[in-house]
Amino acid sequence: MVSISINEVTKTFGEVMAVDEISIDIEEGELFTLLGPSGCGKTTLLRVIAGFYHPDHGQIFFDEEDITKLPPHKRDTGMVFQNYAIWPHMKVFDNVAFGLEIRKVPSAEVRKRVEAVLEAVRLGGFGERTPYQLSGGQQQRVALARALVINPKVLLLDEPLSNLDAKLRVEMRHELIRIQKEFGTTTVYVTHDQEEALSISDRVAVINLGRVMQVDNPRDIYSDPHNLFVADFIGSCTFIPGSIISVDGGAISIKTPWGLPLEGRCTRTDVTFNKGDEVFCAIRPEDFKVQTPSSPHNDIPTKISSVVFTGRYNQVYADVGGTQRVQAELDAESKLKRGDTLTLHVLHKDTIILPVKDDLFAPRIQEIILGGAAAD
Ligand SMILES: Nc1ncnc2c1ncn2[C@@H]1O[C@H](COP(=O)(O)OP(=O)(O)OP(=O)(O)O)[C@@H](O)[C@H]1O
Ligand SMILES: [Mg+2]
C-alpha cells in the first residue's frame, strides 16, 4: 500500500486551465474521491497521477518517491477508464489475463490469479464468456478485475459506474467498497455524482474549475460546507442573504431581509466576521422544522407556496417576507397546503454562515435566491 501526494499540480491545454495548482495528500489504503461538475478537471488529474499527462508544474509522489517523470507502465497503477472498454472480441478470462501476460507472468500463475480476481468481483465461472454475454454491471466488474489483477499499488477509477442504470449503480457501490477494502489498494475514484461520492468514499475532494474547494470526510462535506460552491453542489440548500449583527464565540447573529435575526455557526477556522459583513446562510431542507411553542429561536415566518408529497416527506416551498423562498422537507403526516402561514424554525447548529467576500460563487448564489423569489 502506498500514500499519494499531489503537490501543486497544474495542467493546461492551450488556454484551458484544466488543473490549477492542486495539492492533495491521499493516505495509504484510502478510497479517495475527486468530485466535481463536468469539465472541472477530474479526469485530467487522474491521468496526471497515472502518468498519461505530464503536469506543467508540480509533482506526484507515491510514498516518498517522486514519480512525476516516470512513464505510466512503471507506476504500478491499475486504471478503469471513463467510458470503460473491455475488449469485446476477447473472452472475460483473456480480458483480465492481458495485463499479466504482457508482464510475462508464467501461465499457471496467470490462471490462478485471474480466477482469484474473478472470484473476488463475483464473476467466478464467467471466464469463458464473451463481453456481449454479460450485463452492464458484470462488464464493469470485468474492467475492475482487469485493473486489480496486476496487484497495483494504486487503483484509479474514472466514473466506473457511469454506464449502469440507477439501481445497479447503487448495488455496485456496495460491491466497490467491499472489493476496495478486501484488496486494501489505495484508490482514487472520480465521479460527478455527489451521492455516489458521499456513499463510497473515505474522503472526498470537491473540485471546481480545476481547484480544490474542500477536502473532508463525506459527513463533514455534507454538514460543514466551507464555501458556497460546496454548499450548493452537495445536496441542496436554501440560501439566505444577511449581514453580521454580532459574533459571540461560536454563535453568530445575522440580520435577514425580513428583519428577524438568525443565529448560526461558521464552518471555517480561517474566517473572522465583523459587524456589517455580508454573508449567506445555508440551510438544508431537512433542517427546517415546524415551529412549536417549545422550539428554540430562529423563527422564520413563512407562507406556503407549494407542497409536493414525495412519500417520505412533504417537499414544501414557502415564501418569507416577499423576497425569499425556503425549501423544506417536512413531516409527510402534516396537512399543509398552499396559502397556509407557517412558522418554521431551524437550529443554530444547522444554520451555516458563509462569507460572501472572496467567494467567486457568490453571484451565482444571488441568482439562485432571486430565481427562487421570482418563481410564480
Ligand atoms: N486533451 C485535451 N485537450 C484540450 N482540452 C482538454 C483535453 N482534455 C481535457 N480538456 C479540457 O480540460 C478541462 C477539464 O477536462 P476533464 O476531462 O479533466 O474534466 P472532467 O472533470 O473529467 O469532466 P467530466 O465529468 O465531463 O468527465 C475541460 O475544460 C476540458 O475541455
Ligand atoms: Mg472526466
The set of bound ligands, ions and cofactors reads: adenosine-5'-triphosphate, magnesium ion
- Supply Rg: 25 Å
Give the oligomeric state: single chain
Indicate the structural class: alpha+beta
CATH superfamily membership of the largest domain: P-loop containing nucleotide triphosphate hydrolases
Let me know the average pLDDT: 92
**What fold name stands as the CATH topology of the largest domain?**
Rossmann fold
* Largest sheet descriptor: 6 strands, mixed
**Count of individual beta strands:** 20
Percent strand: 25-35%
**Helix and strand run:** EEEHEEEHHHEHEHEEHHEEEEEEEEEEH
For the termini, the CA-CA separation is 56 Å
Low-confidence stretches: none
CATH architecture of the largest domain: 3-Layer(aba) Sandwich
Number of separate structural domains: 2
The proportion of residues forming helix, as a percent range, comes to 25-40%
Query: How many helices in DSSP terms?
Result: 9
Q: For this structure, what is the CATH class of the largest domain?
A: Alpha Beta
